[in-house]
Amino acid sequence: MSTGDVVVLDFWVSPFCLRVKMALAEKGVAYETQEEDLFGGKSELLVKSNPIYQKVPVLLHGGKAVCESTNILSYIDETWPSPPLLPPCTYGRAQARFWADFIDKKVFEEGNALWRTKGEEQEAAKKIFIETLKQLEGALGDNDYFGGATFGFVDIMLVSLTFWFCAYEKFGTFNLGDHCPKLSSWIKKCMERESVSTLLPDPEKVHEFVIMVRKMRGFE
Amino acid sequence: MADEVILLDFWASPFGMRTRIALAEKGIEYEYKEENLADKSRLLLKMNPVKKQIPVLIHNGKPVCESLIIVHYIDEVWKHKSPLLPSDSYQRAHAMFWADYVDKKIYSLGRQVWLSSGEEHEAAKNELMGCFKLLEGELGDKAYFGDDTFGIVDVALIPFYSWFYMFEQCANMSIEAECPKLVAWGKRCMEKESVSKSLPDQHKVYDLLMDLKKKILAK
């Protein structure tokens, strides 16, 4: 299949799009990206491919659209089975899906609360965010990765969010390493992987992006 | 060795209903344990320490949490009977997309219709009706969401059929008038034993929700 057969409707700063690109990279699948200008106006292709949510990422495979990042990751794992992102045993897969869902529901929203709030509200948001990260650290345990000995589904779900952590740390004035040292080590280990290090956007650029969004939305 | 299957549940929970339906579809024997959500058991807190919520499926001593994840697990373990997910990966992604849509929208909007008032209530009611219309569009002329077989999207959505009476009473929603195909689908699902035995009576659910509403609003 040519690269034209696999297209990702993308937005550079979206951790959800990054997940999809990382999964494809892990599988060695060649793909094209189409950058969406979410502030300028969504493309006809995006609106047609994802009429329900009109959001990125969308994976187009042979012209057929798959939407919602967790769903796309499952599809990628099933369509290109090697190397597997989910564990081989059914129970292990259920555990991985649980943590993937936990990450999806909590991390981005709770992290973003750190730049959307001030004062006491921000302090409360910080406590909640750190508590969530500690729960994830508990799930990691003493393993190299959330997938045990191998990098997998849950690792991709979480590491794709970590380039936003610099912005959270700056606005929330805290250091991740002070609260979750194991998670910090895990991030460094993930960065040794080509799929992560080549794809992760510059955290400083995210910080600038957040400053711009805050001004736009009148948070300043 | 026989499987030991326990379900920690609450009779009126739509999420619990999903797991009951899936177990019934597969013909799995299990022990049902009713939880008092105001006084959660040690077993529940031990088996779901992260969310502390029902349903929890305990399979040979190991817990699986989150209703759609449990349904997926049940489908994978007991794959010899009544598949709930398609075998084709694109069709599977399509089914999971819609099950996730139900998960994201119906409970939170339904809850707002149940508990809120004024503008918030009106907005939730309109948005919820919009979701039902979208789902009806997705159903089309099929017997079930899973093409012509009962599948994960049907399992995800049908528990909310037990809330339809509450929506009619609390919000004057005429779901049958506005989404006749969806209501026909609901009735069709209720003809299945796995569904009719798993869903409580709509009036019982309504009485509980009104009772809870009084307590919540009094706080």
Automatic annotation (TrEMBL), chain A:
Reactions catalysed according to its record: RX + glutathione = an S-substituted glutathione + a halide anion + H(+)
Family classification: Belongs to the GST superfamily.
Keywords: Transferase
GO molecular function terms noted in the UniProt entry: glutathione transferase activity
Keyword field contains Transferase: yes
InterPro entries on file: Glutathione-S-Trfase_C-like, Glutathione-S-Trfase_C_sf, Glutathione_S-Trfase, Glutathione_S-Trfase_N, GST_C, GST_C_Tau, Omega/Tau-like, Thioredoxin-like_sf
PANTHER family associated with the record: GLUTATHIONE S-TRANSFERASE, GLUTATHIONE S-TRANSFERASE, GST, SUPERFAMILY, GST DOMAIN CONTAINING
Protein name from the UniProt record: glutathione transferase
UniProtKB/TrEMBL annotation, chain B:
Keyword Isomerase: no
The keyword Transferase is annotated on this UniProt entry: yes
MF GO annotations: glutathione transferase activity
Enzyme class: transferase
Domain GST C-terminal: 88-208
E.C. numbers: 2.5.1.18
GO biological process: glutathione metabolic process
Pfam families to which the protein is assigned, alphabetical: GST_C, GST_N
Catalyses which reaction(s): RX + glutathione = an S-substituted glutathione + a halide anion + H(+)
InterPro entries: Glutathione-S-Trfase_C-like, Glutathione-S-Trfase_C_sf, Glutathione_S-Trfase, Glutathione_S-Trfase_N, GST_C, GST_C_Tau, Omega/Tau-like, Thioredoxin-like_sf
Domain of life (superkingdom): Eukaryota
Keywords, ordered alphabetically: Transferase
GST N-terminal domain segment(s): 3-82
UniProt cross-references to SUPFAM superfamilies, sorted A to Z: GST C-terminal domain-like, Thioredoxin-like
GO cellular component terms, A-Z: cytoplasm
Family named by the database record: Belongs to the GST superfamily.
Descriptive protein name: glutathione transferase
Record organism: Actinidia chinensis var. chinensis (Chinese soft-hair kiwi)
